Amino acid sequence: AKVALMVAAKFDPKRIGIVISLDPNDDNPPRFTDKTSSKNLSLLNIPATIFLTVTDGGPTISSDHQALAIEKFNPGISVYKDEDSSHVCYCDPDPGRQGSLPLKIFRATLFRPKSGDAASLQHAQEMIVEHLSL
């Protein structure tokens, strides 16, 4: 999610039309939410339309580096709050035999499923389909 924002802001802003960033976590190091705002990449005045989502799950994710913080430094981008959802709610719930076990372990240890996960995943899929058809 953060990489897509960085491409739009810094590396190829003229070729990016829409960015959908699902629950971006901007730390290590922050590129959009540094407390010294002069260090931040700007998402203002670029031609891309930017949509962010934010969840309320993930014990290691500081609100200082979530989508709402990115929006604070870049007013005008769209942020959708997925209520009662975990950080990994947008992941395929059954990615197949190869990726299934590590994802299940990851979810069970840090990002426990929440009651809003299914609705958040559906919302993300609908948003992607809607904007891909533009």
Q: How would you sum up this structure, described in words?
A:
This protein has 134 residues and is of the alpha/beta class. The chain is 34% helix and 12% strand. The protein has four helices and three strands; from the N terminus they run H-E-E-H-E-H-H. A three-stranded parallel sheet has the order 1-2-3, sandwiched between helices. Strand 2, helix 2 (67-73) and strand 3 form a beta-alpha-beta unit. It is globular, with a radius of gyration of 15 Å. The relative contact order is 0.17.
List the defining traits of the structure above.
134 residues, three-stranded parallel sheet, alpha/beta, 4 helices
Shape: globular
Q: How would you classify the helix and strand content by structural class?
A: alpha/beta
Helical content, roughly? Answer: 25-40%
Distinct helical segment count: 4
| Strand neighbour order, sheet with most strands | 1-2-3
Number of strands: 3
SS strand fraction: 5-15%
Biggest sheet: strands, sense, closure? 3 strands, parallel
pLDDT < 50 stretches: none
Mean pLDDT: 82
Secondary-structure map:
Layout: H1 2-11, E1 18-21, E2 49-55, H2 67-73, E3 78-82, H3 97-109, H4 117-132
Parallel strand pairs: 1-2, 2-3
